[in-house]
Amino acid sequence: MQCLSCGNIWKIGYDEFDTAKDRCPKCGSLKGVKPKIVFFYESAPLYKDMMKYFDLLSNPKSILVVIGTMGNVVPVADMIEGTPAKKILCNKEPSKFLPEDLFDKVYYESIESTITKIEDDISSWWES
């Protein structure tokens, strides 16, 4: 659980936790206690760190490999549109949130069956 008042994080294991009556063990707060997970529409803790790497895509020598995402939680398409970096998409199926024309290479198969192709793509781009 996580206390939104003091930031305390604690494990409850498989014990029940009643957000209406159970309190933070550190500060005693009753309001602002929630499971230590990211809910929809919340920013994940490392999103800010991740975002700074998208700035690197302004370099045409950069390469981005997007693996296993629908592109709706993290808006990858918005972040990469118009960038000159080389981009590879590897998903098991297409997603309406990830237009193929934004990528230089697109693979709709498992990463296990695609990894050698991706390695070859990256090698050929590094050499050019």
From TrEMBL:
Binding locations of Zn(2+): 3, 6, 24, 27
Gene3D superfamilies assigned: TPP-binding domain (3.40.50.1220)
Enzyme Commission no: 2.3.1.286
GO terms of molecular function: metal ion binding; NAD+ binding; NAD-dependent protein lysine deacetylase activity
UniProt domain Deacetylase sirtuin-type: residue ranges: 1-128
TM region positions: none
EC class name: transferase
Listed Pfam families: SIR2
Hydrolase listed as a keyword: no
Cross-referenced InterPro entries: DHS-like_NAD/FAD-binding_dom (IPR029035), Sirtuin (IPR003000), Ssirtuin_cat_dom (IPR026590)
Keywords carried by this UniProt record: Metal-binding, NAD, Transferase, Zinc
Signal peptide: none
Highest taxon above the source species: Bacteria
Protein name: protein acetyllysine N-acetyltransferase
Organism field: Hydrogenimonas thermophila
